Amino acid sequence: MVGKSVGRIFRAVVELAIIIALALALTWLIRTFVFQPYEIPTSSMEQTLQIGDRVFSEKVTYYFSSIKRGDIVTFDDPTHSVSTLIKRVIATGGQTVDLRDGIVYVDGIPLGDESYTRGQKSYPLSQTYQNKTISYPYTVPDGYLWVMGDNRGNSADSRYFGAVPANSVSGKAFFIYWPFKDFGFLS
């Protein structure tokens, strides 16, 4: 009788351990290959994203298609001050970015509707990361991206650290899940 009880308890413990191991493995697989949650720590993407917003960045899209202008992406911070940044893609490899009179030009054409900036002007930054020289017009090297925050007056972006390697992109931000009042897809 005692032997059967010990056997049942042992089997239950083993089953529980297997369930926990499977849950942890599934969580790791999803975060590594499908999507990852992030919390927005700064105002660099306001009004699109607010401080404290929590977003999902999905990783599947870029397995099958290339990064496009307008995508909001998560990527490794080139300054290493934090692990991940989130910005909007303005130009991709081979394109030329120019900032004239507060307007962003890509390949000589002004970016039309940048309503996400709420009318803020886009000027070069007076200080750059490690005193890097960034002169305009700037041609984005192949395999790199030019990214900018939507809050142009308060964003350390490619104007600060230069173009970022496309292979440093960890995903495409697509959904705000918290706070609930902001719940919805990003555009």
Could you characterize the architecture of this molecule?
- By secondary structure, the chain is α+β, with helices and mostly antiparallel strands.
- 21% of the residues lie in helices and 30% in strands.
- It is built from 3 helices and 12 strands, in the order αββαβββββββαβββ.
- It has helices at residues 2-33, 61-64, 158-161; strands at 35-39, 54-58, 72-76, 84-92, 96-100, 103-106, 109-110, 138-139, 144-148, 164-165, 169-178, 184-185.
- Strands 1, 2, 3, 4, 9, 10, 11 and 12 form an 8-stranded antiparallel β-sheet that branches. A 4-stranded antiparallel β-sheet has the order 7-6-5-8, with no helix packed on it.
- A hairpin with a 7-residue loop joins strand 3 (72-76) and strand 4 (84-92).
- The longest helix is centred in the N-terminal third of the chain and has 32 residues, at 2-33.
- It is elongated and about 85 Å long.
- The N and C termini lie far apart (64 Å).
- The mean pLDDT is 92.
* Alpha-beta classification: alpha+beta
The dominant shape is elongated
Low-confidence stretches at least 5 residues in length (pLDDT < 50)? Answer: none
Mean pLDDT: 92
Order of helices and strands: HEEHEEEEEEEHEEE
Q: Helical amount among residues, as a percent range?
A: 10-25%
Write down how many β-strands occur, each being a DSSP E stretch of 2 or more residues: 12
Major pleated sheet: 8 strands, antiparallel
* Continuous helix count: 3
Radius of gyration: 22 Å
Distance between the termini: 64 Å
What percentage of amino acids are in beta strands?
A: 25-35%
